[in-house]
UniProtKB/TrEMBL annotation, chain A:
Key words of the record: Signal
Domain of life assignment: Bacteria
Family annotation (Gene3D superfamilies): Periplasmic binding protein-like II (3.40.190.10)
Signal peptide: 1-24
InterPro entries referenced in this protein's UniProt entry, alphabetically: Bact_solute-bd_prot1, SBP
Protein name, as recorded: Sugar ABC transporter substrate-binding protein
Keyword Signal: yes
TrEMBL record, chain B:
Entry's transmembrane regions: 28-53, 89-111, 123-146, 158-180, 201-226, 261-280
Domain ABC transmembrane type-1: start-end pairs: 89-280
Pfam families with a match to the protein in the record: BPD_transp_1 (PF00528)
Primary location group: membrane
Protein name (Swiss-Prot/TrEMBL): ABC transporter permease
PROSITE patterns in the cross-refs: ABC_TM1
InterPro entries: MetI-like, MetI-like_sf
Gene3D superfamilies from the UniProt entry: MetI-like (1.10.3720.10)
Amino acid sequence: MFRTSRTAALAALAAAALALSACGGSSDSGSSGGGSQGKTLTLWHYEGADSAMGKAWAEAVKEFEASHPGVKVKFEAKGFEQIQKTAGMVLNSDQAPDVMEYNKGNATAGLLSKQGLLTDLSEQAAKRGWDKLLSPSLQTTAKYDQRGIMGSGKWYGVPNYGEYVMVYYNKDAFKKQGIEVPTTFDEFTAALDTFVKAGITPIATAGAEYPAQQIFYQLALTKAARPWVDSFQLYKGKVDFHGPELTYAAQTFADWVKKGYIAKDSAGLKAEDMGVSFIGGKFPIMISGSWWYGRFQSEIKDFEWGSFLFPGAQLTPGSSGNIWVVPEKAKNKDLAYDFIDITMKKEVQNLLGNSGGVPVAADPSAIQDAKSKELIENFNKLTTSDGLAFYPDWPAPGYYDVLVSGVQELINGTKQPAQVLDEIAQPYNDNLADIGN
Amino acid sequence: MTAGRVVSAPAARVRAARPAVHRAPGRWAVLAALVVLAVVMLFPFLIVALNAFKSPAEYSSGNPLSLPKGLYLQGVVDFWNRVDFGEKLWNSFLISASVAVAAVVLSILNAYALGIGRVRGRLWVLVVFLVGNTLPQEALAYPLYYLSKQVGLYDSKLSVILIFTVIQAAFGTYLLSSVLGRFPREILEAAALDGAGRWRALWGIVVPISRPTLSVLLIFFFIWTWNEFFLPLIFLISNDNQTVPVAIGVLQGEKMMDATMSSASALLGIVPAVAFFLIFQRTLTRGVTVGAVK
C-alpha cells in the first residue's frame, strides 16, 4: 500500500512538472533573443573565472557597462566542448550571441567564415586600429580567405591574448647539478646529459596528447625558416616530409628517447599527468605552453622555477589565443565592436598580463609581477622577430590524432623515424588534395 | 540506450540471497567475488570523492589517491556558484520527470495496441521502434535541430522533453509490448464479460496489474534522461536552460582541466541520481515480473 501511494505521488509530481515545463518552454524561446533592441549585449566565452582572460574580460564588461549607460551585458559562461560542438548550429539560429570567443584555425573559425556565419570585421579593424595593435603573426589567425584558410583575406576574428611554447625549468634542480640556463642548443643538450648522468630523466612530456608533438615540431623548427612554416601551415609551397626539417625532428626525437632525455613510459601520459609531475618536482624540465603559467604560479610552492625560450630556435610553436567573433546574425553588432575594442585597451590588457596571461597589446612597464614580466617579454621577443610558428596539428582536420600516434611510435621505438614521417605525410597530402592545392 | 538495460538482475539477486545463510563454502567464494566486484565498481566514486575535497595545490603536489589533509569545500562551493547549480538541478529534474511520466504513458498506450490489441503488422512496428532506439544520437542531431528551429522550440526545455519522450518511449514500447503480449487473456475476457470497454480495461485492469513494471520504467527513464549529455548540449543553448551534465561540461577547458573542481562537480552531479535510486530501489527490486494471474 505504501509503495503504491508513493508511486502515485511521484507520478503526480512529475505530471505537475510536465505542465510547468510546457509553459516554461514556450516563453523561454521568445524572451532569450534579446527583444529590447540595442539594450543587451550577449557575450559568451569559455575561460575560467579565475584565469587571466576571465579576470580581464570581467573588467572589460564593467568598463563597457560604465561607458554604455542603459546597456546591460548578459554574460554566459560556456564550456569549450559545447562551443566546439554547437557553434555552427547556434550561429545559424536566432539564438546567436552578439559577441563570443571562438577557436582560431581553419577547421573552426575558418569553416564558419566560409559558411557565412561570421561578420566581416575588416572595416572595424582598420577604423579602430586593431590592425596596428596586432603583429603580423598574430593577425594570421584573424584573417580567413574565401576557402576559410587563415593568413589572408578578411578579418573575421580579433585575438585578445597570445600563447607560445617555452621551456619550464626547476631552478633548484638546475642549481643542484650546477647547470646554468642554456642559451644554445648544444648547452641545452649538455644540460640534459648532466641530468641523465645523475640518474634523472630530464624532460616531462605526454605522448597521448599535444605535448610530445609540440616538442617534435619545435625540433623541426630549429632547422626551419619562415617560408617552411608558410608552406606547412598556409599551403604556400610544397612540404617535403623527408626534407631536412622533419627528418631532423624525427631523428632527434628518437635519439632523445634513446639517450634517456624523455621517459619511455611518457607515451601513454596525458598533458595533465605531465603538468602534475612537473609541479611535484619529479622532472626538472617541461616543454609546453604558456597556458600552464598561471597554474604554476599558484601551485608550485616547493621549489623555484622559471622559463626560457627553446635554445637555438628562431621559431617557436605559438599563436594568438582564441578570437572574438561577431556572428552574422548578431543583433547588436555595434555594441559587440565596442566591447572588443575595450578588451584591446591598455587597462584590460595590462590586467590580463598581471594575472598570468599573455596580452597582445599591453604596456610592458605596467606589468609588476617579475614572473609575468618574463613571460610577456619572451612573447614580445617572439612577435617582434615574427617567431610564432603555430601548432603542428593545424594544417589538416584530424591531424592531431595522426601526430599523437606518430610521436607515440617514436617514443615506443616501434617504428623508424623515416616510417613515421611517411605515416604523417599521407593525411597531410590527402588534405591538400581535398582543398584543391 | 544500450542493450544492457534489462532490469531483472536485482530481483534475481534478492531471490538468491535468502537461502544463502545456511549453505556452504561455495557461497563464500561467490560472496568474495561480489565484494571484489563492488570494490571495483565503487573505486571511481571513491577517487571522485577523495579529490572533490582537495585543494588544487594539494592535488598537484600529491597524487590522485592521496588522502586529503583537510576538508576543502571551496571546490564544491565555487562550482555551485559558478554554474548556478540549483537552477541546473531544477532543470534536470523538470526535464527528467516530465520525460519519465510522458514516456511511460506513451509506452503503455502503444504497448496496449501492440501487445494486447495485436494490431496487424505489429512485428514490423516493433522493429521500427527498435531501430529508432538504436540510432546514434549524433545522427539525429541535425534533423532535430532543423525541426526544432522550424517550430520555434530550439533552445527550450520543451524540445528536449519531446525528443527524449519519444526516444525513451521507443524502448518502453518495445519492452512493454512483449510483457503485455503474455498478459493473461482470462482476466481481459472476464472484464469484457463484465462490460468493460477497451479504455476501461486498459486503465482499470492492465495498468494496475502492470504497475511494478511501469514504475521500474519510470525510474529508469528518469535516470537515463538525467544522465543524457549530447542532445541537451545541443538543444539547451542558454545557460538558464541547461541540465546538470551539460553544466559539468563547462569545466572541461581547451587545454586545462581542473581536476579537483571536476571531481567536486561530478560528485554534485551523481548525488541526485544516486539518492533517487536509493529512495526507489525497493520498487526496482520488484522487477519486471508481471502478468501473473492473481
